[in-house]
Amino acid sequence: MEPSRDTHATLVDLLDRILDKGLVINADIIISVAGIPLIGVNLKAALAGMETMLKYGVMQAWDEKSRAWEREHRKKNVLSLVEGEEIVLKMYGSYYYSKGIYNAWKPGYFYLTNQKLILYRQDFNEITFQIPLEEIKALVTREEAHFVKEKKKQVLCLIDKQDQVHRLSAVEINQLKDAIEQKLVTMGLSLESSPVLPEFEKGPIDFLIEGEEVTHRGEKVWYLVPASGSKQETWRPGHLYLTDKRLCWWYDFERKLVFDVPVDRIVTINTEMRKTSGLDSKKEKVLDILYEVNLTKRTASFAGKEIDEWAEALNRIISGKIEEEIETCPQCGKSAPAKELLEEGCSSCGWVSPVRDRKQKTENRGQKTEKTTA
Amino acid sequence: MAEARYLYCIVEGNEEITLGNIGIEDSSVYTISYQDLCAVVHNCLPEPYKSEDQEKMKSWVTAHEKVVEIAWEKFGTVLPLGFDTIIKGEEGVAPDENMKNWLKDDYENLTQKMGKLKDKAEYGVQIFWDPKIISEGLIETNPEIKKLSEEIKSKSKGLAYMYKQKLENLLKKEMEKEADRYFKNFYEQIRRCVDQIKVEKTKKPEEGKQMLMNLSCLLTKEKSKILGDELEKIDNMEGFFVRFTGPWPPYSFV
Questions:
Q1: Hey, which residues 212-251 in chain A have their CB within 8 Å of chain B?
Q2: Residue A369 pLDDT
Q3: Whole-model pTM above 0.80?
Q4: Considering only CA atoms, which of A237, A243, A222 is closest in space to residue A285?
């Protein structure tokens, strides 16, 4: 293919360059209008057929994202340390970030310095988490079920002096734990030896059929038990379980499954703030699940602290999983499962997909537009 | 009385010469030198060139480009300026003096840039796709989309509507994912053939073609063959089109 210079389209391409670009000179020696160097400003407005502005379209956000991605990757951010602060260990990992309705594992690099533990996200130049070492009260590792279908994940729970629990994750999480402990020893500090971790209340899960695996579980979830006979519909406490086959709700008082639907029957989900009791005027976030049994549509409503996480877990099932294809990292070329690359970033160079953020946004938008009709 | 200098470009050289009446409105173009750098200019009034007349504008811009190209040909390396860069004089300071002072102050920066651009030219690469062909392809190959579009057929009117929305959302999401994937692949593919690359804003769709990426690439003219071959591969892909323009003076890399 030969480059061309003389068609109409190439003329536009050239004009873009002459009008928008070229060497920049400091403004005090060149002629400007109202302080604005006028390289081509008038001309652009006058010349028809030249589209230097992108019309608002489907791909605009994408276009901006890709350019932003490129920009980010040209300039490399560096974590700034205070004087006398030295890095002891740097490790790729993620931090469970939870603020308002935003809950997610944010990937980045853990920096253990002689003063602090930091999770730094280079691409956003963001310190997601940091704690002075002397504020660490205890460290405990535990296994947690990861979101959909994935293996168990080792999570390091860091308890600070305010008894707040922070969840950290990394492939070599124990190495990080050891390093922090060692550092604390050299500083003459010690950790609480057998800390009590505020555990999730775990309901019994003997209802599982053979080969069935729980992929998502969490804290107490309230279910709006439908009216039956003379009983009105009522919110009841229990536990929700997402398995690779079903979504089930276990009723704590009666110790049995009250709600149980195969995942492929779920049509759509929606979250909404609304009143859950007539007495209290406070609104709560409610997750509505529209599912279909025997060609009939039905709705089930759930409420609880972790509704957003449930919505996310369910949305992943509904919108489908990215297949387990192997991709190469666009930055360093490392091969890794596409899913991991897109969701967690590259474990060798720290690249994070620009789609990640957008995906979350689109999903949120999706939830809002797909109104459940019960 | 002319009291400003219209600046076309900076070149390497130390002679003050005249290039003839090749400038905007047939102005006489000449060089002002400082050490081994020359500014290519013509004398003008200290006000910008502007006009409501499109044809006039076009002829000015074309003249600007022609001067830059001639200087490029003659001096080898060129730092082009955008249209309407006019160096003014100030009280007690002639425009030429302003210009020389600027060349002096920025000397290091300019020669450094000059070194980087030696023997290189800029090429425009725009890759388009036909969203219709791509989405049709997705409906065939993406099992989830396929399943969903099959299911719609068997649904009642109300449900079908909801499914359709779901399908559209999914398709849009998958299209963006595809766009991302292709963007990165192409970017890598092209990056290997060039010295420098810049991602520009994409433009609005034309005739059913959506612009997937708009790049400015800096490379030696010899390498343009390799780049051309690579682009041909992309152009031959079903649903993709490539526009390859150049060689241009390195406007995007100064």
A1: none
A2: 44
A3: no
A4: A222
**Set of chain B residues whose Cβ sits within 8 Å of the Cβ of A20:** 82
A324 token code pair:
């387990």
Nearest CA to A284 out of A221, A239, A344, A343 is that of A221
Min CA distance, A313 vs chain B (Å)?
A: 17
Condensed to tens digits (0 to 9), the pLDDT of residues A351-360 reads: 776 655 554 5
CA A78 to chain centre: 23
Q: What is the pLDDT of residues B156-204, one digit of tens each?
A: 777 777 788 888 888 888 999 999 999 999 999 999 999 999 998 888 7
Q: What is the pLDDT of residue A40?
A: 44
B167-175: long-range contacts, CB 8 A cutoff, minimum separation 24: B169/A362, B169/A366, B169/A369, B169/A370, B170/A319, B170/A320, B170/B144, B170/B145, B171/B135, B171/B138, B171/B139, B171/B145, B172/A58, B173/A319, B173/A359, B173/A362, B174/B138, B174/B142, B174/B145, B175/B131, B175/B134, B175/B135, B175/B138
Q: Residues 285-344, chain A: which have Cβ within 8 Å of B?
A: 297, 319-320, 330
Q: Which of A10, A30, A353 sits opposite B245 (nearest CB)?
A: A10
Q: For residue B227, which of B244, B248, B202, B252 has the smallest C-alpha distance? A: B244
With contacts defined as CB-CB under 8 Å, which chain A residues touch B86?
A: 30-31
pLDDT reading at A288 higher than 60: yes
pLDDT band at A55 (very low <50, low <70, confident <90, very high): very low
Amino acid letter for position A133:
L
Closest CB from B83, B202, B254 relative to A59 = B202
In order, the DSSP letters of A188-237 are: T----SSPPP-PPP----TTPPTT--EEEE-S-EEEEEPPBTTBPPEEEE
**pLDDT top residue among A345 and B219:** B219
Look at residues B153, B148, B136, B181 and name the one whose alpha carbon lies nearest to residue A319: B148
Give me the interface pTM, i.e. the ipTM.
0.80
What number of C-beta contacts closer than 8 Å exist between A and B? 185
